[in-house]
Specification:
The protein is an all-alpha fold and 203 residues long. The chain folds into 2 domains: 9-101, RNA polymerase sigma factor, region 2, helix turn helix motif (Rna Polymerase Sigma Factor, Chain: A); 136-202, no CATH class. 78% of the residues lie in helices and 0% in strands.
Length: 203
């Protein structure tokens, strides 16, 4: 925007302190410095909308500084506005970077949780498949094979949970018979053998 007059820094400062002249001073600053400030933001990972927002914040901050008599005139208005814009934009970039990192961490945790859930469900389904096969062998075989292959218990520990077996050798013999029965059952049904192998592989 072109204005009919030019302002010196002193005139801008003076007019910003007067309500009736403030708007003219602001229009001059927008006209004079907007392009410079916009270029800085766009050249540093920003866009036009980012520039508009940050420059507006810059102008508001500068007016407040002037009206509170905190502007000492040790630098030009141009340099001062540039410094404010730079600080505001760098703060915004840090916030965005932090937010992006938090989002990445959240999404990674969410993804890991979902994968763990799916993996658990898959294992649970395969476990159920194996359990159904064990059930065909009878309750004793089912309990024994489950304790051996899923609970990973020793024969000595299993004897404590399955009373009725005199010693470990008797228990091993029972396990052998259960496995031979399972093998015979699978040899008679090719699909059952395939299902069992897949379940063992993924369980």
């Amino acid at each position: 925007m072109q204005l009919s007059r030019s302002y010196s820094d002193a005139e801008v400062i003076n007019d910003l302190k007067q309500v009736t002249r403030m708007n003219d001073a602001l229009r001059f600053m927008y006209s004079e410095y907007y392009g410079l400030l916009e270029s800085y933001i766009i050249n540093n990972k920003g866009n036009n909308d980012d520039a508009a927002d940050v420059i507006q914040e810059t102008m508001v901050a500068f007016v407040e500084i002037v009206q509170q008599e905190k502007f000492r005139g040790e630098s030009t208005i141009k340099s001062f506005l540039y410094a404010i814009t730079r600080n505001l934009w760098l703060t915004e970039l840090r916030k965005r970077s932090s937010s992006e990192n938090r989002n990445r961490i959240f999404e990674k945790a969410k993804e890991d949780s979902e994968q763990a859930t799916v993996f658990h469900l898959i294992k649970h389904e395969h476990f159920k498949t194996i359990q159904k096969l064990f059930e065909k062998l009878g309750e004793k075989c089912k309990q024994l094979l489950t304790l051996v292959y899923y609970e990973d218990l020793s024969m000595n520990d299993i004897i404590k949970q399955m009373p009725g077996y005199e010693n470990e050798q008797v228990l091993r013999n029972k396990k052998y018979k259960c496995m031979k029965q399972l093998e015979k059952m699978m040899n008679a049904d090719e699909q059952l053998k395939t299902d069992f192998k897949n379940a063992l592989k993924n369980a």
